[in-house]
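Q: Hi! First time doing this. I have a protein sequence and I read that you can turn it into a structure. Is that right? Here it is:
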Amino acid sequence: MASASRARIDAGIRAAAARGESTPVSPTGWLRIALRGAALIGGLAVFTPLHYAFRALAYGSPFPEWFLYLAARICGARVRVIGTPLKRDVFFIANHISWLDILALGGASGTAYVAKAETAQVPVVGWLAKINRTVFVKRENRLGVAEQINALREALADNWSVTVFPEGTTTDGQSLLPFKTSMMRVLEPPPPGVFVQPVVLDYGAMAEWIGWVGEEGGINNALRVLSRRGNFTLKIHFLEPFSPGEFVGRKEISAVARGRIEAKLLEILGRPLRDFAWSVAPVRYQPPEAEFPVE
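A: Yes, that's right. Below is the predicted 3D structure, encoded as structure tokens:
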């Protein structure tokens, strides 16, 4: 009975957050936020000077990857890697649920990311993104597409792994949006030796609580996640990689990757995916008439 009541309360909080309302944090929740924040700052204080000292002597510092792994654990994620991530010359294509995806996937694979140009201007976040070799793009700047593609090609040529989240937003772990393919132009034609590896992020029963959806602000979502008691399991499924050269153009490559991700999600959930309940302009998605699900 208590667990059912707790589930109803959690569902109500999720629904309020998705409507853009500020959701409550208990006194013990604020304590957890403070402790986790202090631990993150402590991790930065240790790993940042080590990173810069390493970079003064050699290329390819391991410290951003180690920090991201630690940061994911501090935030409560217990990451389980299923499958084998390629370490170099790989273009990861993943579903997207939370800002935690970036910490967990980066900590598990050392990948760099493609991010909106505005991210570079966000205090602390932008600095951390640059340390992790993020490729910044201006999605609305059609005249600069060639320059952005060149930046991605340079990243892949330097033997990085690069990750894109082509849904255009975070979802609830129960849906999969159409894929935006513009930044996959880097695969037309694919650089020599580069593979595509689809990735599925699975938060299990925690997906809807963790998910950053609807009108919820980033700060409110971060407070909800960081104030939560205990830990949760995040399974990262690295699916079978494939050579993009075997397919014709980015749209076909995208369709293959999305099909494999969808099949894995169906296997994990054990039921059909549901329609996402909010509009997503980057992928021109409009939902059917539906309210935020409260279970």
